[in-house]
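FW: tagging you since you asked about this chain on Friday. Here's the raw sequence from the shared folder, copied in full. Didn't touch anything.
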Amino acid sequence: MGMEEEYAWVIDFLPGGRSSERAGEPIAQLVGERFFTLFEVSVKPGTSLAFGQRIYIGPAERAEVDRIRKRLHFDDLTGTARTELPTVLGKILLYREAEFVSFFNKAGPLSVRLHQLELINGIGKRHLTQILEAREQKPFESFADLHARLPLMPDPTQLLANRIQEEMQAKVQHYLFVRPPARNE
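HL: got it, structure written out here
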């Protein structure tokens, strides 16, 4: 399997479709679970989706999704989707907690002057040093463990959610979590 998403989380559901489109086909805006890809999908008639609901969008038979309409840019999201995105990202981070805690345990330098962890706003030289010293003694086991051992550091889930949103907006040079946009997009 390549760079496809298998599951996505609902950040907006429009049961009557977009007001700008004649056919009132129900649509939803989703964020992918693995690469945080933004999608707009057509929802099967009679299906209702809830904000933050995890749904299957892979190649096999889909229960809720009729078809994937298009990949979205951050600017294409509805106001509701933008409002819900931080909450849903927090849910995804907790759902995939082991992977993101592993990032804190394994992240390394990008160059002589820059470390991967420093790309996350809120982690400067001081927090970087504290993280490296703490993980050298014993790897972090959870976000709660990370927060307990580094009490002065801001909430790691919030830091990661903010970084993911920056990457979604293509405001970064280095992509850590989000699939980079295609060159022609």
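FW: The chain has two domains: 7-84, 96-168.
HL: agreed, and The radius of gyration is 18 Å.
FW: great, closing this out.
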